[in-house]
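Hello again,

I reread your note about wanting to compare the complex against the isolated chains. To keep things tidy I'm splitting this into two emails, and this first one only covers the full assembly. Below are the input lines as submitted, including protein chains and any nucleic acid or small-molecule components. They are followed by the predicted structure of everything together. The single-chain runs will come separately.
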Amino acid sequence: MALIVQKYGGTSVANVDRIKNVAARVKSFWQQGNKMVVVVSARSGVTNELVARAKALHAMPNEREMDMLLSVGEQETIALLSIALHAIGVPACSRTGAQAGVYTDSLHTRARISRITGGDINERLEEGKVVIVAGFQGISPKDEVTTLGRGGSDLTAIAIAAAVSADLCQIYTDVEGVFTADPRVVLDARKLQEIDYDEMLELASSGSKVMQARSVEFAKKYAVPFEVRSSLNDKPGTLVKDIASKTMEDAVVSGVAVDRTQTRVTVSDIPDNARAIACIFNALGDAGLNVDMIIKNLGTQGRANLTFSVNTDQFAFAERVIGAVVKELGSGAVRAAGEVAKLSVVGVGMVSHPGVAGTLFNALASVGVNCDLITTSEIKIAVAIDPLKADEAARAVHEAFELNKLKPLG
Amino acid sequence: MALIVQKYGGTSVANVDRIKNVAARVKSFWQQGNKMVVVVSARSGVTNELVARAKALHAMPNEREMDMLLSVGEQETIALLSIALHAIGVPACSRTGAQAGVYTDSLHTRARISRITGGDINERLEEGKVVIVAGFQGISPKDEVTTLGRGGSDLTAIAIAAAVSADLCQIYTDVEGVFTADPRVVLDARKLQEIDYDEMLELASSGSKVMQARSVEFAKKYAVPFEVRSSLNDKPGTLVKDIASKTMEDAVVSGVAVDRTQTRVTVSDIPDNARAIACIFNALGDAGLNVDMIIKNLGTQGRANLTFSVNTDQFAFAERVIGAVVKELGSGAVRAAGEVAKLSVVGVGMVSHPGVAGTLFNALASVGVNCDLITTSEIKIAVAIDPLKADEAARAVHEAFELNKLKPLG
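Full-complex prediction:
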C-alpha cells in the first residue's frame, strides 16, 4: 500500500498493444492496493513526425508554436492509456501538464519547472482512481503550453512524485537498470541494485544514456528516490537514492562510463590572463555549451593555449562562439584537435581512496592506452582517450576495479 | 479593410502542401489590410485514426477521454498553419478552444457552447497578427477539454465571428456553395448567390450536406452572415444571411434537396389518444431522435396507427425506444415500412404562393412518382418518395420551378 509514480517512455506506449501491456502492469500494482500516478511520453515516432511536418513548413519554426504542436503527442497517450485501463476495469482519468499543475517559465521548447502543485491528483487518488499525467509539458505564467525539452517526461515523473510525496517513483525504460559499464562492451558488467544520486549524476554526464542529468538533479534536490527498470520484464531495476550509509570499504567505484561523442578543442595564442580565459568560458556558458576536461598550457611570448572537450555535434557552434571572443581579445585561434572518447570511473567512496587514480592508469597502461586530458571530482576521474581503444580500455578498467565481483551496494 | 473569420475543414489542411495553400490564401486577405481570424479542423484522417486506436482499446471509450484524445487533432493543425504563415512572412499565433474563450457545458463529445469571449483575439488582431483558432473544441466549467460534435468547426467559426463582431465569416469547403439542387443529379443546378438563414436551415435538415443545421441556427440567432465557398478556387460562394428585403415575386423556391437516408416507421395498434402519442414522441425526443413527416391513421376498434420517417441508421435505436413505450402502453407494434427518399422544395416566398404544392405534385406526376407522407412548413414542402425514382423526381421538380433560370436572389 504505497503511493507510486510510474513513468513509461515512448517505446513502451508506441502502439495499441504496448499500451495494453502498460495498462496491465499498472493494474497489477493498483490491485495490490497501491495509489498509482502514471506519467507517459508521446508514442515513439509521433514527435518526429510532428517535427518533420513543422520543418517542411519552416526551417526554424517558432518555439511557442512548436510547444503547441509537440504537446499533442502526450495528450494522445494519456487519453489512450486511460481508455485502456477502463477496458480492464480500472478507474482512471487523464491530466494534461497544465491540469496536473506543472507550472514552468516561458522558455518554450526548454521550459524549466517553477512550481508543481499536482492539481487534483490527490483527490482523484482518494477516489481510488489511477491518474495518468502527460509528461514533457507544462504551462507558462501566460497560460501557454510549454515543453520541458530532452528528458522532460522523466522530469515530470520525478517532479510529480515530489509534489504528491510519492513513496517511490519508477522510471520504466528499455534498459534493466544502471550497470557498472555498458553491457554491450563489457560482457560481465553487473546491474547495480542501488546507486547514489551523485554517482548517477556523474554517470549521466559521462555518457551513460540511461537518464538526463537534469532529472537526477531534481530528484536529489527534492530527495525523491526513484527506480530505473525495464518495461519488458518484471525484474527489479536500480534504485537511485541518497546512500548516506554507504560504507566506503564496500564500494569505491560504482561504474565505468564511456562518452564517444567528444571533440577536443584547442584555443591557441590568447592573452595569458584570467580575464581572457573568463571571456571564453563566459561566452560558452552564455551559449549553453558545456565544456569539460580543461587544460591551460603556456605558449610563447606570454601567450596561453587552452584545450578542452565539447560534444562533437556542438563543435561548430562552439567554434563560432569562441571565434567572436578571440576577435574581441585581439589574438587567438580556435581549431578542432580530433575526436576523443571520455572514459569516467565514478564512485562516492573515491575521494578517500588515494589508490583509485593509480589503479585507473595501471589498467589503461596494461592495454597500451594513453591519455592527456584528465579531470577529477570528488566522485569521478575522467580521461580523454583514443575512441578506437575505448572498448578495450573500458573492459580493462572494469576488471581492474573488480566491478564484476562487487557485492550489491548499500 | 474588414474583420474576416475564415474556416477551413480537414481536407483543406490534410497535409503540408495544402496547409501551405491555406496560408497563401490567408496571406492574400491579410495583405489587403483585413484583420484575419482562421478556424481550422483536424487534418482529414487524423480523427478517424485516433478513434480507431481508442476503439481498439475499448468498445465504448469514455467520452471525457475521447475529448482529451480528439482535441489533439485541431491543436496540431493550428500550430502547423501558424508556422506556415510565419514562413511566408505573416505574423500569426495559434489559440486552442480554451484560449479563445469557447466555454461549453460538460456534455463531452457533443458539448454546447454556453459563452464565447474570444480570449485575447482582439488584442492580437490589433497587433496585426493573424489568429489561428482550433475548431471543434471548447472548455467546460470544470476546465476540461470538450468537443462540439459534428459540424463543430463550422460552429466555432460562426461563434467566434459573433464574439469578435466580424464583418464576414467564410466557410471554406469542398463545394462551391449552395446549389438549387445536387449538381451531380440535376446537371443544370445553379449556385445561389445568396440564401436566407431559414432556407439554409431547411436545406441542411433536408439532406443537403453543405452544413449542419446547428451552425446555421447559431448564425441566424446571432445574425452572423456567412459565406459558403470552395477552398479549391477563388470563386465567390453563397452568402447566407437574413434576406428581409427579398421580394416575393422574384424567388418562390430556392432549391430542391433529396435525403436518401430515411426509413418509414409504422407504429400500429396504439390507443387513440393524445397521451399515448405524446408518450411515443416524448421518448423519441428524449433519446435525441428526430422524426419527420408524421401521419396518424385510425385503425380498428378505437386504435390508431402512426407512420413517420427517421434516419435509416437510427431506426434500430428508434425501434428499441418505441418498443419500450408500447410495452408500457399495453398495446402496439413497431416495424420498418421500407426506405424512402425525402424530396424537399425550399423557399421563403412559398407561404404566400398557393401554387407551389400544385406545381410540385404536377412535376412528380409527370414522371410517374407517387408519394404518401407529406409535410409542410412556411418555407418547405417535403414528400416521401421511392428512393429509386428520387433523381428523376429531383430533375422534374427543378425544371418545373425553373430553378435553372432564376436570376440571382436578393
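For quick reference: Chain A has two domains: 3-173, 255-400.

B.
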